[in-house]
Each structure stands twice: as C-alpha cells, then as structure tokens.
Amino acid sequence: MGAARGESDWLHEDSIGDVRSVLDHAHEAFIAMDAGGLVIDWNRQAQRTFGWSSEEAIGQVLADLIIPPRDRDAHAEGLRRYLDSGRARILDKRLELSAIDRTGREFPVELTISHHDAAPEYFFAFLVDISQRRLSERLLRAQLAITRVFSQALSSDQAMRELLATLGEAMEWQLGAWWSQAEGSEVLRCRSVWRSEAAALEFEQITLALELVQGVALPGRVWASGQPEWTVDLAADPSVPRAQVALRAGLHASLCVPVLVKGEFHGAIEFFSGQVGEPARATREILGTIAEQIGSFMSVLDERSDLLMKLQRLALTDDLTGLANRRAWQDNLEREIAAARRSTEPLCVAMLDLDHFKRYNDAHGHQAGDRLLIELAHAWRTQLRASDILARYGGEEFALLLPASPIEAASKVLARVRTATPEGQTCSAGLATFNGSESPEQLIGRADAALYEAKARGRNRTVIAKADRSHRTRLGEEDSSGS
Ligand code: GH3
Ligand code: MG
Ligand code: MG
C-alpha cells in the first residue's frame, strides 16, 4: 500500500480494476470506513441511496452522513469497543437499521458489515434501502386487516374504529380520525378517533366534538377536492383550527384521504404524525389504495346491512297481516316489562280472539277469512298509538301491549279496537294490568284466562283480570257490547 491513501488502496493493488467495476455496478450501496470512522469508499449506488457523491463522502465521518443523530453515540461506542477488544457482535450478520440521506429523510436499510481479514481496522458494508419493502409489508398487513375487519363488521363506523388503530400502528402515526357525512347533512362529523399512548386526550375530545363544512380543515378540504390533502407543519398552517391543541398533543403534520363509495364522497380518513414534513409519496399512495379498498368494502357493507335489516324485519313480521309476529311480541313484551319494573308507569296487556271465526270461514271461504284478518289488522292498528304493540299471536288470536296506560284508559282503547272489527264480526278480549313483579308468562297467563272467561260468558266482551296478593286470578267483567 502506498503512503498516500487513494479511494481504493485498501484493496489489493492487482485486483483493483476488476473489483472496482463490480462494486460500481452492484445494486447495493457499498461503503468502506477506516478505524477513525472516516469514509474511504462509496460506490455509485451509495451515491444514489444517500445523495452524496463519492467525492463529497470520502474523507467525511460516516456517522455524520448516514446515521440518524440519535443513533450516533451508540455507533461510536460500538466502534470503540471493537477496536479495544477485537470483537464485534454485529459483524457478518444481516442487520436492519435506520439510516438518513442527504436531505435528512430517515429510512430503513438492510446491511451486512464485514472487515478484511488482512486489515481488520477497515470495515465495509453492503446496504439496501428497504423502505419500499417495508411499505409493501405494511400495505399487505393493512389489506388483511381491512378484509378481516369488514368481514365481521356491522357498520362502517364500527369497522373504521378498528381500522384506525391497525393502520395507525402499522404506519407509525400518532392519531387517526374517521370523518363521515350523515345522510343528507351538510357537515362532516368525526365518528371515531384512535390515538397512540403519546398523543393527548384533549385533542381527541376536541376532534370528536367538531363539525366541519366543506372546505374547512383538512377533512373539509378533502371533501371539497376529492383528493388527498396534507399539512406539512401544523405550527405554520393558519388553516388548521385545531393546530394549537394538536401541537400540545405532539402532533405536527397530517395527511387526509377521501373514501369514495360508488364514486361518491362518503368520508375521510385523517392521520397525524409526530414529525414535521411532507408525507412520503409512497405513504400517500398506500393510504390512497387503502382508502379505495375501504370504500369498496363499505359499499358491500351497506348492501349487507340493508339486507340484514330486511331479513330482520321479515323475521319479526307476520306474513299475512304485516303486524308484529309472536317472536317480535315476546321481545317487546320482555323489554316493556323490564322498563315497567324500573318505572312506576302502569302497563296493560290484552289477548283478543275473533268470535266464531270458524263459522266465518265456513260461510265465506278461507281466503275471505284471510282478507278479514288483513282488514282487521289495519282497522285495529289505526285505533292505537305508535308506542302500542299489536301482534298476531297465532291464527285469529292477537296480543296487545299498551305501555304507560292505566287500566281505565286501556279498557277504553280495547272497546274502540273491538268496535273497529270489520264485516260486522265481533271479538272477545282479556285484559290484565302488570302487577309490578310478575313474569311475562304470568301476565300473559292472566290475560289469557280473562279471554277464556270472556268466551265462556258469551263472547263479544272484555274481561279484566284482577290479581290479588296471592296472585290468584280473580275475574271481573268490564263490558259487554251488543250480544
Ligand atoms: P271462538 O273463538 O269464538 O270460540 O270460535 P272460533 O271459531 O273463532 O274458534 P276456534 O279456535 O275453534 O277456531 C279458530 C278458527 O280460525 C280456525 C281456523 O279456521 C280459523 N283461522 C285461524 N287462522 C286462520 C287464518 O290464518 N286464516 C283463516 N282464514 N282462518 C284462520
Ligand atoms: Mg276465535
Ligand atoms: Mg282462537
């Protein structure tokens, strides 16, 4: 080796030409460093990856060029330890570390550091920028999460609550918000917020209380433009109404993308970063792709929840009359009894049954009987309040629940309902008022026994069930119209 150290004189002189050419054509960045930590070699890919030309880099302290400031002490310490002991844990292993380029942009690199057996005071490393690979891995993870979350979600808002956390953690953001427009409304509302441990609760609360019109704040701007928008530095952007609180929460830059459902603006996903700076192009693209997928899942979800609602309605509705069916009746009865237990409001239940309906069928035919039931359902329903529940209990038997009705009012309603029975037909009813402690079955049992009594007494009447202290049913006749 000569006295004056050239850029490659740590290699054997006779092989320099060949090796130089191989190194310059390598896809990996190749960097060599001496024991003093100075750069002594820097191939073409190193120039591309880190932004410094070999002329600029050679002779500089390597750590100052490519190691993030926070990692420099550890790097110096590792080098010192190796020089003292001759041992290094990191040699000849594949490592993943953070590096910076000329602009200060931080990115992940994969590298292997080795030294020349004949010259252990020289180190060399091959490095690859793996930010693209990292982003692809994140995108893949995010896509899996979207599929998983939407396959189980019942609503967009519920799905987004989960996704904000998954995406925020994967992309190392500090806080994420989902904004959507309520049907027909002129404002965007924040439906859910995810935040890292570091981000402040105060900002979350303010965000959840906000309503944004088109053009205002980042989500409002995204709504207006239909394009991704970002703020590079919240401290310097006067158009950010929450900036002061955001800064206190450690949030410095934000990125927001639209979610379109069937080409229409549906909402916006907003993420905040703890660092000032424009989001990387790749990050914007990834979030854009994710938002597109979320949009198509949301349209499927909308269709699915419409379908579920229709199915649910079908499952709770009587086919013939469109009234609540027995299952819906049971649900409502249990709910109303639970509510009545907590309050002091009186609750009444009646069982109604058409009189001699078999005769009607025999005289007019079964189809006419069906038509009568349909007509009857409509006629009775119009006599009731919206909060009253009328259900087809089975056959030509109906159940009526009157919340917040004392017995006197309930029996007036029943008289009206019975009078509204079409085609000159009559019906009998048994009416019971909730005693405050009985089970739904006991209450129905008492109303049913009263109905039986009404039939026994000649039909076309209402019988009120009276419960004594021992809950034995005493029956008292209320009225008997007509017969
Ligand atoms: P009452 O209740 O006054 O003692 O006499 P009823 O003839 O109404 O009583 P019963 O329970 O013996 O007969 C009920 C009849 O109601 C039997 C059946 O033909 C008729 N029915 C039940 N469900 C339907 C239905 O969905 N459509 C028609 N058309 N008839 C029905
Ligand atoms: Mg009958
Ligand atoms: Mg019957």
CATH topology of the largest domain: Beta-Lactamase
Query: What is the strand arrangement across the widest sheet?
Result: 8-7-6-11-10-9
**CATH uppermost class of the largest domain:** Alpha Beta
Shape: rod-shaped
Counted by DSSP, the helix tally is 16
The gist of it:
By secondary structure, the protein is of the alpha+beta class.
Describe this structure in words.
The structure is a single chain. With 483 residues, the protein is an alpha+beta fold. The chain has 3 domains: 13-129, PAS domain (Beta-Lactamase); 134-312, 2-Layer Sandwich (Beta-Lactamase); 326-477, Reverse transcriptase/Diguanylate cyclase domain (Alpha-Beta Plaits, 2-Layer Sandwich). It is built from 16 helices and 17 strands. The protein has helices at residues 16-25, 44-50, 54-57, 62-66, 72-85, 131-152, 156-170, 201-209, 217-225, 243-248, 281-315, 326-342, 357-364, 366-381, 407-419, 440-456; strands at residues 29-33, 39-42, 94-100, 106-116, 119-129, 175-181, 188-195, 211-212, 229-231, 253-261, 264-273, 348-354, 389-394, 397-402, 427-433, 461-467, 473-480. The strands form 3 sheets. A 6-stranded antiparallel β-sheet has the order 8-7-6-11-10-9, sandwiched between helices. Strand 10 and strand 11 form a beta hairpin. Helix 6 packs antiparallel against helix 7 (156-170) and helix 6 packs parallel to helix 11. The longest helix is centred in the middle third of the chain and has 35 residues, at 281-315. The radius of gyration is 39 Å and the shape is rod-shaped. The structure holds 3'-deoxy-guanosine-5'-triphosphate and magnesium ion (MG) (2 copies). One magnesium ion (MG) is lined by residues 353, 395-397.
